[in-house]
Amino acid sequence: MKNRQDEWTGSIAVGSRFFIENMKALLSFRAKGSAVIEGNEGYQLREESAHYKALFGVKKDDIGPENTYLWNVKSE
User: Fold this and answer.
1) Dihedral sign computed on CA atoms, order 18, 23, 26, 27
2) pTM of the model
3) Domain map of the chain by residue range?
4) Strand 13-15 with 35-39, pairing
């Protein structure tokens, strides 16, 4: 079984520095926050890793009565 190569699976683009700089320019604002780094196979355009908690407010709480719907069921 082949091992995962992070530079290929975790990058937006991999190649020469000229290619990576060109890709970053073409992606313009969509590449904001991405970084050009040197790797084993050349250069990589990578996004900064975002923390899951930063995207969604962390709230650990039990589902309370505000999420309860009482059915109007009559037993016979």
Assistant:
1) negative
2) 0.54
3) 1-49
4) unpaired
Closest CA to 12 of 22, 51, 52, 4: 22
Segment 37-73, tens digit of pLDDT: 888 778 998 887 665 555 555 566 666 666 666 677 7
11 CB-contact burial (10 Å; exposed 0-12 / middle 13-18 / buried 19+): buried
Q: Quote the CA–CA distance of 49 and 12 in Å, as a whole number.
A: 12
The residue count of the chain comes to 76
Q: How far apart are CA 70 and CA 60, in angstroms?
A: 24
